[in-house]
Amino acid sequence: MLLSGKVSRHLERGDQVSAMITGEFYTKNHFPGFGRPFAFNAQLLLKVGRKLEAKDAARGSLKSPWWTLGFKYQEVAEIAEWEDEQIEFIKEKVTEEGRQEDLKKGKAPEQVALDEAAFWLDLASIDGTWDEVVDRVAECYMEAGLCDIAKFILYRE
Q1: Based on the domain organization, do 63 and 118 belong to the same domain?
Q2: % of the chain with per-residue pLDDT over 90
Q3: Which residues of 86-107 are buried (b: 16+ CB within 10 A; e: fewer)?
Q4: What is the model's pTM?
Q5: 71, 91, 109, 154 - which has most CB atoms within 10 Å?
């Protein structure tokens, strides 16, 4: 990637300030909704000894879908100093009890289904278990009325 290459060249020349400026630039709405820019910046900040800023950047990246991190979840969670509570929270949300709780709170069934699909994608990104959740993710999209997306997800050559 262009920006990570620029960061590497700045670091090779010993120019940490330019590397950090480039890393920060990467996080500025060039890839909305993706955690990778923030996870990349967190790793850069850690590399140049800015542990507190790295922790904040990593926490910011974990607010995005985990499957967009571009790095292993555990690596980013370690920088963020997160324990497994978030994983446990998501595992609870994909249970029938979690689903019913959201419905009782007044969430539309379609939104509950979309949220569940997102949770399954996050969980699959941790363990690399995509094949185990693909059918359920497609079902969630069907429940949300997004049948074309479900068909796309299930497509196999």
Answers
A1: no
A2: 66
A3: ebeebeebbeeebbeebeeeee
A4: 0.78
A5: 71
Where among 51, 80, 109 does a domain terminate? 80
Could you give the 3-state DSSP secondary structure of residue 33? coil
User: 10: domain CATH number?
Assistant: 1.25.40
Query: What is the count of structural domains for the chain?
Result: 2
- Contact, 42 vs 76, CB < 8 A? yes
Q: Is 27 helix (H, G, I), strand (E, B) or coil?
A: coil
Contacts of residue 119, Cβ cutoff 8 Å, sequence gap at least 6: 90, 93, 94
Do residue 109 and residue 90 come from a single domain? Answer: yes
120-153: pLDDT as tens digits:
999 998 988 889 999 999 999 999 999 999 999 9
Are residues 90 and 115 in contact, defined by beta-carbon separation less than 8 angstroms? no
**Do 9 and 72 reside in the same domain of the chain?**
yes
